[in-house]
Write a structure and sequence with these properties.
The complex is a heterodimer. Chain A is mainly alpha-helical. Helices cover 46% and strands 8% of the residues of chain A. The model of chain A has no long low-confidence stretch (mean pLDDT 94). Chain B has 6 helices and 7 strands. Classes of the chains: A mainly alpha, B alpha/beta. The A-B interface holds A 64-67, 69, 75-77, 80, 84-89, 102-104 and B 27, 30-31, 33-36, 104-107, 111, 114-115, 118-120.
Chain lengths: 104, 165
């Protein structure tokens, strides 16, 4: 299992760069992972990341686009602006969760 | 996979107007956008019903002429065509399928079209069909980006993978 060090924290990741041990995640790691995707985390990004964490805690899976809209109150357009070119995949990666397994 | 091997753009043609005819194209277009792939949807023939304001949310599963269809679920007994023709059968199959789709958070057609549009996917109607069906702009959902000839379609599809559904 590959490891990498981000902002002083060593994390376990899979071959696609998704964290495999969420307990290693913290806000500095998130900022570092976001930077790798060319994203600087701001308040709006955190709203998305926090919703993913809360929903993952409840359901055990990364929420899909519709759940983000309906339950999280995050508009599709905003998600694509905040995390361009693959919003849910990127947000899940930065939030320290597995690659989304849903088709929608 | 190197960056050059990645699909960057898809053009998806939706040619059938049954519920199971419309959805694959929508799921593939939305899925493309979620992977950062540019997506154009082209609705032609009965597929056009997927973007007709008045009818897009009332599409039904075809229960006739589908030898793979089984009832009451996917592993049940095969539904003969004559039985599929019984009034209400199509509506019943539609309700069942919509229920399962809702569980998977697959939105109704209208909402799905809006989601794809908000995700930056483009929606086009086929000019030949629009003329043949005597349709005008008012008939389409507001997310429609325009009516294209086949030639226009190939033009906007430059560099794309074309997928026919």
């Amino acid at each position: 299992m590959p490891q990498k060090t981000i902002n002083g924290t060593t994390i376990d990741v899979n071959e696609e760069g998704f964290m495999t041990d969420h307990s290693q995640w913290n806000r500095e790691v998130a900022a570092g992972l976001a930077a790798e995707e060319g994203i600087t985390l701001a308040g709006e990004h955190w709203k998305v990341l926090e919703f993913i964490a809360a929903d993952y805690g409840e359901k055990g899976v990364v929420p899909g686009m519709r759940r983000m809209n309906k339950v999280g109150g995050i508009a599709t357009k905003d998600l694509y602006t905040l995390f361009p070119d693959g919003p849910i995949k990127k947000a899940a990666k930065i939030a320290g969760f597995p690659k989304p397994a849903s088709c929608v | 996979m190197s960056n050059d091997d990645k699909i960057k753009k898809v053009s998806i043609i939706v040619s059938r107007g049954s519920l199971e005819g419309i959805y694959p194209g929508l799921i593939m277009a939305n899925g493309a956008r979620m992977e950062g792939i540019e997506a154009n949807l082209f609705f032609t023939f009965f597929g056009l019903y997927g973007v007709l304001r008045k009818y897009m949310n009332d599409l039904k599963v075809a229960t006739v002429g589908n030898p793979a269809m089984r009832v009451p679920d996917a592993k049940g007994f095969p539904l003969p065509t004559w039985m599929g023709a019984i009034p209400g059968m199509s509506s019943f199959a539609t309700v069942m399928m919509k229920k399962e789709m809702d569980k998977l958070d697959i939105p109704p057609v209208g909402e799905f079209i809006e989601m794809i549009h908000d995700a930056g996917g483009k929606l086009y109607a086929c000019k030949a069909t629009v003329d043949m069906f005597h349709l005008s702009e008012d008939d389409f959902c507001p997310q429609m980006d325009g009516v294209l000839t086949v030639g226009d379609f190939y033009e906007i599809s430059a560099g794309a993978q074309i997928i026919f559904t």
